[in-house]
Design goal:
The complex is a heterodimer of chains A (176) and B (440).
Chain A lengths: L1 H17 L42 E2 L9 E2 L12 H13 L5 E6 L6 H21 L7 E7 L10 H7 L1 E7 L1
Parallel strand pairs in A: 3-4
Antiparallel strand pairs in A: 1-5, 2-5, 3-5
Chain B lengths: L1 H24 L21 E4 L4 E4 L5 H15 L2 E3 L3 H14 L4 H6 L4 E9 L4 E9 L4 E10 L4 H17 L8 E6 L6 E6 L6 E2 L6 E7 L5 E8 L2 E8 L5 E5 L5 E6 L5 E6 L6 E6 L6 E2 L7 E6 L5 E6 L6 E6 L6 E2 L7 E6 L5 E8 L2 E8 L5 E3 L7 E6 L5 E8 L2 E8 L6 E2 L7 E6 L2
Parallel strand pairs in B: 1-3, 1-4, 2-4
Antiparallel strand pairs in B: 4-5, 5-6, 7-8, 7-30, 8-9, 10-11, 11-12, 12-13, 14-15, 15-16, 16-17, 18-19, 19-20, 20-21, 22-23, 23-24, 24-25, 26-27, 27-28, 28-29
Helix pairs in contact in B: 1-5, 2-5
Classes of the chains: A alpha+beta (176), B alpha+beta (440).
């Protein structure tokens, strides 16, 4: 009888995990999300493996005050770091070495040409390229996050070569 | 050879059309009424159908023209029917029928119609109901009669149900009149996910308060939509209840959490994650757990979609130097390239019929919508003109496609029949309409 009860509880726990009631899925994510595990009172009687909680980055990132954090720019349809941007990245790495409590969010952006979908991936490649470069200079990867905005956040909405060049950028924000 | 493949598709369609008619025509094989249909159609030939105004009573009497408009739209856009356009003549014959109390079959035939749809409706305060009879004019007899009801004022629901019934009974095919399209719009100032009827009516917002909500994809039971949400410094994959509006977080990996494609049975999701240092295709359970990497490589692998049998995946890779579409097993693999025309091919969606993939192709500098045959790799271009078109999505009939097109500085949604290739504009008004996903 006890075994049946344990089995039923295990099934109920598994079912509630599938329904997203366990710790991994947060509730009301449109507000500031906090991941609160739903611990049932009979936890000791349950079998099942613990799943890793998601690594939710709750850091608030702001525009950096230091002039070291200039944008870097990319050629059309490319995500390789241009030689003219290497000094900027070296300056950022140097600054980060001095302030080892600071984390950086690297944004990747594209111009409007190209499909929305592919530009989201391209933006991420640009952010990842900058991240790889900084890691190569000795910065701990865990301090560097990436996010792509694809073509969604142009700084210049015009459809000119000049505007497009400004929009193909990597932008840096820092933890408060 | 382009012509051969189209003919093969065409003859199987014609067979379906003829067979659909033949099944109904032979009483021994007919499902119920044993009604004969005298119509046989070859490929491209449509059934000519007359739709007089329904006779109405109750508070919504004035809805009769609207009801007829919706019915005509549904039937002509299905691809199977030519609706008699001259409604003045049609309504004249109908008035005579009502005066005499008899159906003047020779008069209807003289209008060029083969099928006649007659109806009466009552628009009450507690419900809308209509009784419809569909006639075979050559045979001079009814094929079927049915009563449809809906909530008060919601006669569109009843009419769409009728349209799908007519398509099913006369062709054997499933119609799309009751389907929905999810999409993204920025009319509130930020991008949110919306849903509308397939014909553009009943637009309503499903997500709220989003920084940016994009890339919607339906769960097959149509109750929830998966989408990418930007929350602070992160991208997350969420699902939202279409009726309830409640949201649930499915993934929050570092980097990309984008391009969710829900499996045909709703149990799994394909998506693009960059958590391991590069955008790659991953397969997860529908609750966001159990992420398994399917692609490996130094190039971008993205925009996955399922085959209708769930066994394969189409995705975009730029391993050749430019984005192209590849197919692989849904357990992973290197993938075989399937697009060989053009240098920029993205946004694949796999037809529910399994035979074609629709995608966006940059052709002479303009993004057009094309299909590629999964077996032969043959390409058919569906769109023309100087405006960029993106993000195609199949209707469940494997015959209609919805996409967005940017013209006059704004984007709108259009649908077309892949055999007719005549775009029908579905959205209008301020704002951009993008990233459509057709429900099952």
């Amino acid at each position: 009888m006890r075994r049946v009860v344990v089995l039923l509880l295990a099934v109920a726990f598994a079912a509630s995990s599938v329904l997203g009631l366990s710790g991994c899925a947060g509730r009301q994510p449109t507000e500031e999300p906090t991941v609160e595990p739903d611990v049932s009172e009979d936890a000791s009687a349950l079998t099942g493996e613990d799943l890793p909680l998601p690594d939710v980055d709750d850091t608030v990132y702001v525009e950096p005050l230091s002039a070291a954090f200039e944008n870097i720019y990319f050629d059309f349809d490319r995500y390789d770091i241009r030689s003219e941007d290497e000094p900027t990245l070296q300056g950022i790495a140097a600054w980060l070495e001095e302030r080892d409590d600071v984390r950086v969010l690297i944004e990747g952006h594209c111009d409007e040409r190209g499909t929305n979908e592919y530009n989201m991936a391209l933006g991420e490649q640009r952010a990842l390229a900058a991240r790889r470069y900084l890691v190569g200079l000795g910065i701990d990867a865990s301090r560097l996050r990436t996010i792509s905005y694809g073509e969604e956040r142009p700084v210049d909405p015009r459809s000119t070569e000049e505007a497009w060049a400004k929009n193909r950028r990597g932008h840096f924000t820092v933890s408060e | 050879m382009r012509g051969l493949s189209r003919m093969r598709r065409a003859s199987s369609m014609a067979l379906g059309l003829v067979l659909g008619v033949v099944v109904i025509a032979w009483p021994t094989r007919a499902p119920a009424q044993g009604v004969r249909l005298s119509i046989e159609k070859g490929f491209g030939e449509k059934v000519r159908i007359a739709t007089p105004l329904f006779e109405g009573s109750g508070t919504g009497l004035a809805d009769a023209p609207g009801i007829r408009d919706v019915l005509m739209f549904d039937l002509s856009n299905s691809g199977y029917f030519d609706v008699v356009e001259n409604v003045e003549f049609v309504d004249d014959v109908e008035r005579d029928d009502r005066t005499t109390g008899r159906i003047d079959f020779p008069e209807w035939l003289a209008l060029g119609a083969e099928i006649l749809v007659k109806g009466e409706f009552y628009a009450g305060l507690s419900e809308f109901s209509m009784e419809v009879t569909v006639y075979d004019l050559e045979q001079g007899r009814g094929i079927f009669a049915r009563r449809y009801t809906s909530a008060p004022g919601e006669w569109r629901v009843a009419v769409h149900r009728l349209s799908d019934e007519i398509v099913k009974r006369l062709t054997g095919e499933d119609g799309i009149a009751q389907t929905k399209i999810a999409f993204v719009s920025n009319t509130t100032g930020t991008k949110e996910v919306y849903v509308m009827d397939y014909d553009g009516a009943n637009r309503r917002r499903v997500t709220r308060g989003s920084q940016m909500a994009i890339y919607p994809d339906w769960f097959p039971d149509r109750t929830r939509i998966a989408y990418t949400s930007f929350i602070g410094p992160r991208q997350e994959l969420h699902s939202v209840g279409v009726s309830s509006g409640d949201t649930e977080r499915l993934t929050v990996f570092p980097g990309l959490n984008a391009f969710a494609s829900v499996s045909p049975d709703g149990s799994e999701i394909l998506m693009t994650l960059s958590k391991d240092g590069n955008p790659e295709v991953y397969r997860l359970r529908a609750d966001g757990s159990g992420a398994r990497r399917l692609t490996y490589g130094r190039s971008t692998e993205s925009s996955p979609c399922w085959s209708p049998d769930g066994r394969r995946v189409a995705f975009v890779s730029d391993r050749s130097g430019r984005p192209q579409i590849y197919l692989m097993s849904s357990t992973g693999g290197t993938g075989e390239r399937v697009t060989f025309q053009g240098y920029y091919n993205t946004s694949p969606d796999w037809s529910p019929r399994g035979d074609l993939i629709v995608y966006t192709s940059r052709t002479e500098g303009v993004f057009q919508i094309c299909t590629v045959d999964v077996e032969t790799n043959e390409v058919v271009r569906l769109t023309t003109g100087p405006h960029h078109k993106e993000d195609p999505s199949w209707a469940p009939d494997g015959r209609h496609v919805v996409y967005s097109m940017k013209s006059g500085g704004k984007s709108d949604l259009y649908m077309l029949d892949i055999y007719e290739m005549e775009p029908v504009k579905l959205t209008s008004g301020a704002g951009d309409y993008l990233s459509p996903a057709w429900s099952r």
